[in-house]
Give the backbone structure.
Amino acid sequence: MRLTVHLLSRLFAGLVLAVFVLAPASLGAQENAAAGTGRTPSPEIVAEQRGKITAFAAEADRLEGRMRGNLDDDAVLVEVRNALEGMTRDLIASGVAFRPRLAAINGRLDEIGPARGADEPPEPPALSEERQSLIAEKAEINALLGEAETISLRANRLIEEIARVRRELFANTLSRRYDISAAVSPAVLKDFAAEAGKVRNSVSSWLRFVVSYKLRWVLLATFFALLAAGVLLFGGRRLFGDMLLADPAKPEPSYLNRLSVAFWSTFLPSAALAVFLAATWFFYSYYGVLRRDIGEMMVTLFNVIAIVFFVYRLSSAVFSPDLPNWRLVPMRTGAARALFWLVCTTALVMGIDSVASKVNQVTGSPLSLTVAKSFFATIAIGLLVIVIALIRPWADEAGRPRRWHPLFRLLLFALGGGTVLAALLGYIGLARFISQQIVVTGAILATMYLGYLSASAISEVGAFGRTSFGRALDRRFHFDEATADQLGLALSMCITLLVLAVGIPLILLQWGFQWGDIRAWAYNLAHEVRVGSISISLVGIASGILIFLLGYFGTRGFQRWLDGKVMARGRVDAGVRNSISTAVGYAGIALAALVGISAAGLNLSNLALVAGALSLGIGFGLQNIVNNFVSGLILLAERPFKVGDWIVAGGVEGNVRKISVRATEIETFRRQTVILPNSELINAAVGNWTLRNRLGRVDIPVNVAVESDPRHVHAVLLEIVNAQQGILKNPAPSVDFSGFADGALNFVVRAVVPDITGTLAFTNEMRFRIVERFREEGILLPAAPPRPAPAKPAGA
Amino acid sequence: MNKTILATCLAMAVATPAFAATVINLDDTAHTLVVTEGGSQLDVPVGAGETVEICPSGCFVTLPNGDRAALTGTERLEIKDGRGRVF
């Protein structure tokens, strides 16, 4: 089981790697294929593209004319701009199409060679003709490319001008002041009645038409639409069952639980409704049921219904007026209920305003009616926002209601008040803009805030492990607590980034920035942030870090492979293996660091100035470290001792456990690890008991009483040691009569043992035997020296 | 197995596609290219042996010897002996 998992994961990794390496390559190949027109680029390309480029020039003229004729129609301007952008892309594609032919011409010209000089043998006329024709063709292509360039320049300048005109239009809309006295006069009511009559006539005539001729199709279309929506709704309920409904019995649902219920209970019904409406519209227009004006009104109506329903479901999930435990934001129940109704009403008012605008546009109603409608809608929204600001949503410790954060309150008052004021003063365009922005940007910001809350809920300790996704991963991979927590943290960071990456462009887009602008900013931010003369590239730094990590893991893997497979099989000495793999490790990491730094694009020349100034101090401070480092390298190369040797250095005796680049770890016999800096091991004498072999001489000093017979003692000792097992006969053991110190006769028994690291048993046994033999032979060990007399107390 | 997955993710992240066209000057002298990008025409100097990145979103380039080329932002343009070759 484990084997297959291991194998599968390697296979998967290999596949993914292959995909990602081949994909850009194949994309590149695809592009080149698309750019080229076949195996042998033919001269027809010139004629083909000439026709296209002429067409582009004509198209540019037409679009410019259209633009100049519609300088106050924003929708037409957007259309023209899109057409121009498409044309610039086509122009470049046209230019790229010449590339293979140009390459072929250049190649052939290189083959033919330059024109022969006057003093060189003449070439066949066919060759010089060919050269002439090739040069002429190249000149033609260059001319066409120049034309394409000019048209592209012109189109881009037109695009810039359109942007400028649109900005001016927008500014004018905001600053235009209408006469609202006309809006609140009784004449408006008459206009409204007339308008309503027109709409009623239009709709009823359409209904009559449908009932008489298209009833069957309408029923069929409605049936299909209901089917599609029903599938989505019931299928979703079956699949996600308990995630859809908030269980009122559950006392303390976790935040993630609440979030997932909120998400599904918002998404699924809204999606089902959206599918139903979209399918209805699609089938109606497919069967030709719709009339042009009814169709436009229906589209807007359906959009509004979908959006208002979505806001209704979202607010009921977020505020959860009936089930306080499931609320996503901890509010007082009364405030939650009020906010729920206020938000839904705001969305409803915006929706009605939107539908009414469309109806006005389609039926061509008078200006006074449009102004009146906008006037009342914006004032309504402004008042609603002010009421929202007045609510006291939080409860403090004593349970008393508390207001919004003061800055937030201020913002809401400013926005609401500003809308009402602008409307009252007649700046209807400005009021409409502010109210629209409040609702849309507010909705996006609220959603982003929920996303951020969910990210912080996941990043809490242990929260990720409790989710069903986390549990599934745990069953599969068996993470421990710490890893699961780190995964949760990483996931929450990803969610936050995703929220920002989706939300901010959305807000910018609907403020009127172009998608191309946003993309250009994102590209600049990622690639080059200029601060003065320093240029930081986030992508560069990230790729530098990634390359370093790649190099680091690669080095470790290579080290393991080298040690385990190559050197172990080759029966290389353990010390040499350690040296080589350590050296390989350091070299690999240094290389990875260098490559990573250069990939990050860091300019190290600025650092060099600073380093130069500090070099003196750094040099002095790092003296010892560098000393140790170089000593470590020498140790690795020269190997005066290896791992496992018993050495005596720096007053410490023990077995070598690890040789690092700065210090060596020695484990004493009392299991204490002493870390000796390498400089001590190089600059001072080091004793190694096991450098060449494990032989060693054991010296056992024996003192006997002065009265003993030395020759007898010597013979006994020699007999004992010769009878001992486990010593070498060559060099033969010996007994030295070494002196007369300490009021006794000093002997030293010397024997060479094969393994100096395991002599305890031998020396113990030797000493036992010596004592036993001495007792047998009656040889006395020296008496204890007399104790010094205790000092006489003074006065006694 | 964690290491394998980690290594795969790293490799994926490193294999990002190019973002802009690269111009490499293989000569010993500096050259100046006339780059028409968007609505502007700029002179872009490329020193000897230097590599510059230009036009992430397509442009027309006029090479030192008068030849023209259209780039989409994913190519490599090598200048040798004043002549350019696009890869």
About this structure: The longest strand of chain A covers residues 696-704.
